[in-house]
Amino acid sequence: MSIKQHLIDPELCIRCYTCENTCTVGAITHGDDNVVVDASLCNHCMDCIAPCPTGSIDHWHWVEKPHSVEDQHGWFELPEAGPELAAEPVADAADEAGDPAIAALLDSAHQGGGGRAVAPASAAKPRVNQFNLAKPLVARVQGNRRLTDAGDDMDVHHVILDLGDAEMERLEGQCVGVVVPGDASPGEAHVPRLYSLSSPRDGERAGHNNISLTVKREPDGICSNYLCDLEVGESVKLTGPFGATFLMPEDPEARVVMICTGTGSAPFRGFTMHRERAGGGSTPMWLFFGARSPEALPYFGPLQKVPDTLLSKRFAYSRVPGQSKCYVQDQLRTEAGAMGELLADARTHIYLCGHKAMEAGVDEALADIARTQGLDWSELKSRLRAEGRYQVETW
Q: 211: which strand partners?
């Protein structure tokens, strides 16, 4: 008799360990390489589904014998699902759990409108998990400077890391894990923290084997304080890279819309630098960037120097004295005409990155704009997602 086994796709998984922290029965664990599900412990409660940012966890295979934890740790990709999977809806596991809302979520995901992300069709093929906890990449700090105004309580740093002779193939939009020295508790190492690359594939400096990270210091952030306090010459252990979907299209005709807040600008810095080094595109990229004030906006100075022919910039400030609050969704509405044309264009790719709180406002604004073009945003978003043209990375 076959059973339905819950599995995690190692190619899509970005090793954020959110699912492991969510699982209340200890069925999800991680090793040096992969995050895995123990079939003997998993009770199909579905609590881990919604928090997953990539949809890597949305996989169930019918098997005669469950894949062991040991086998899963050795995977580089999911094995092919058996033919039985196509004959039975994936949402059945949620139905058995008695949660119609989760069942609807899963059904939507597997119809192309929900949690499972797809890379843009023209994106370069990414490599993932080249370096792991057992064999991390040891980089050295080349630079560490504060990006935000010294008088602002938003402390954001630009950290440049030299990879030496290590061959880490990476793409814009991917992330790396940072291993904090020491133990979280006696005998238990810190779980790596993920940071998006803010540099393009050919290096922070073109043709050099280095990368950059954009790091916001959090008062109780173990890793953020570690990174912000690093000095030139110190070593840092890295894992990854991770991420197989939040990638930029290689097609120079692609029209790219980037919506972000705070350090969510990191991958878009890499996008912009790569396109600039590649000679630009047929049309400008769009950037909608939200922050509390110009002083709290990372890369504000350098962004002013990027020509409008490459990057059309719209800033939204929510806490400038004497001014009304403005958020990224407000700027989207200000550009409703241009955005409406972009939504109707089959070459358009939309990216959201930053604080999760912005998602609802952006979604509502795009729905209103789509309506002006006679488009149903719910249907359009599902299609964009299925085609790899709508990417979301929020926390």
A: 161
